[in-house]
Each structure stands twice: as C-alpha cells, then as structure tokens.
Write a structure and sequence with these properties.
76 residues; SH3 type barrels; six-stranded antiparallel beta sheet; FeoA-like; FeoA_core_dom; Ferrous iron transport protein A
C-alpha cells in the first residue's frame, strides 16, 4: 500500500485508507471517493493528481493525495 500521490499514470487502484480529517473525508465522499472505491490515475505529474472515479475526472491536490492510501488492482 502507498499514497495515491505515488501512483503511476494509467494505474488502477483501490482506496484502502484515508488519513484525513472529517472535512476532507466528506469532500472526497461527495466526489465519489471512499474506502473501497476503485479509481484510475489519469495524470500524475506536476500539479494535482487527476483520477477517474465513477466516470468523472477529479483533480486532487498532492497534499490530500498523500493522505489517500491505495493498493494496486491485481490483473485478473
């Protein structure tokens, strides 16, 4: 497991833990990112991390992305 900020572009991950306060947790939940959510990293270079969750692209700042702990989806 590792922070979302370290995920590579094109990688599919599952959210395992979110080490953030209530406000950030609610904001992420409103965007469709919860524990157990499956997301795909669209872009992770300079600036925010762009992910696709439930068909929507979402920009997440690097600071918050460091608090979202993910695990890579194993290919089936």
């Amino acid at each position: 497991m590792y922070p979302l900020a370290f995920a590579k572009e094109g990688e599919e991950v599952v959210v395992k833990r979110i080490d953030a306060g209530c406000g950030a947790m609610q904001r992420l939940a409103s965007m469709g990112i919860n524990i157990g959510s499956r997301i795909k990293v669209i872009r992770n270079q300079n600036g925010p991390v762009i992910v696709s969750a439930r068909g929507c692209n979402i920009a997440i700042g690097k600071g918050l992305a460091m608090k979202i702990i993910v695990e890579r989806v194993k290919p089936s």
